[in-house]
């Protein structure tokens, strides 16, 4: 018991140590950034500064403009993420169910996964128009193919002994899928979710660069065009915060899953 307490205390100290230096690095970075702009080592007009970013954010927060743009980007990201999660899982199950279809579609999935999705964005605008549908499709296309490949690979590499046990007890494909394949692939699914939430955010921003009149990506493009670089830098900082928050959300889901094991 004493050893367990000592181990837990050491683990907590280690986490506090790591967290302290993570916060310290962030404070040092923003502090150095502010100082260098004030003493004119960096041009505040080009590089902005933490104080300018806070001023810009507070001005846009008063009329709710910034929250509107953040809300649009978050909605598009979460909707894309949910579509990727549902569609990717469903297609992976269908490919596992029909191995011939999996073998036939494998080279196409690999090619589509390797294709730079930014090349598709102009075509999507022509096909779908300059609207939210284009942004959603752009984000989904960025994550869907890798999800299908990873999940299908996980399905096919499931423990052969467990599959044999189900068959020995008279179970068929439905039982194998529901009792072994899907439950056993949850860690892979969560791992994919961690990657996909970031990919969906990237896809949404790419889409907003090209086909939006609202959102964080739109603010970046508009700010650069009218030389409001504080808008651009503020939007980038907000994207970092959003990315961290979304990743933390998936991490919380993972912790909840592990507690139930």
Automatic annotation (TrEMBL):
Pfam families: BPD_transp_1 (PF00528)
Transmembrane segments: 20-46, 66-96, 108-128, 134-153, 199-223, 229-250
GO cellular component terms given for this protein: plasma membrane
Coiled coil: none
Protein's membrane topology: Multi-pass membrane protein
Sequence ranges assigned to domain ABC transmembrane type-1 in this UniProt record: 70-250
Keyword NADP assigned: no
UniProt KW keywords: Cell membrane, Membrane, Transmembrane, Transmembrane helix, Transport
InterPro entries membership: MetI-like (IPR000515), MetI-like_sf (IPR035906)
GO annotation, biological process: transmembrane transport
Primary location: membrane
Domain of life of the organism encoding this protein: Bacteria
Compartments, as annotated in UniProt: Cell membrane
Family from the record: Belongs to the binding-protein-dependent transport system permease family.
Protein name: ABC transporter permease
Organism per entry: Candidatus Onthocola gallistercoris
């Amino acid at each position: 018991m004493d050893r367990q307490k000592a181990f837990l205390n050491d683990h907590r100290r280690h986490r506090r140590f790591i967290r302290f230096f993570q916060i310290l690095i962030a404070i040092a970075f923003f502090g150095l950034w502010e100082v260098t702009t004030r003493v004119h080592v960096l041009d505040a007009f080009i590089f902005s500064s933490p104080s300018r970013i806070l001023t810009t954010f507070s001005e846009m927060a008063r009329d709710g403009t910034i929250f509107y743009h953040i809300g649009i980007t978050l909605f598009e990201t979460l909707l894309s993420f949910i579509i990727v999660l549902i569609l990717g899982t469903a297609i992976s199950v269908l490919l596992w169910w029909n191995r011939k279809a999996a073998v036939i579609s494998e080279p196409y999935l690999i090619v589509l996964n390797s294709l730079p999705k930014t090349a598709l964005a102009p075509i999507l605008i022509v096909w779908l128009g300059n609207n939210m549908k284009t942004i959603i499709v752009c984000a989904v296309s960025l994550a869907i193919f890798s999800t299908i490949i990873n999940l299908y690979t996980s399905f096919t590499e499931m423990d052969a002994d467990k599959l044999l046990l189900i068959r020995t007890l008279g179970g068929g494909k439905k039982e194998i899928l529901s009792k072994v394949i899907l439950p056993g692939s949850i860690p892979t699914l969560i791992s994919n979710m961690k990657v996909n939430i970031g990919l969906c955010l990237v896809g949404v921003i790419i889409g907003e660069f090209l086909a939006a009149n609202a959102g964080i990506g739109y603010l970046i493009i508009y700010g650069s065009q009218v030389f409001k670089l504080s808008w651009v830098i503020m939007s980038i900082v907000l994207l970092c915060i959003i990315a961290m928050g979304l990743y933390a959300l998936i991490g919380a889901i993972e912790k909840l899953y592990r507690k139930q094991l």
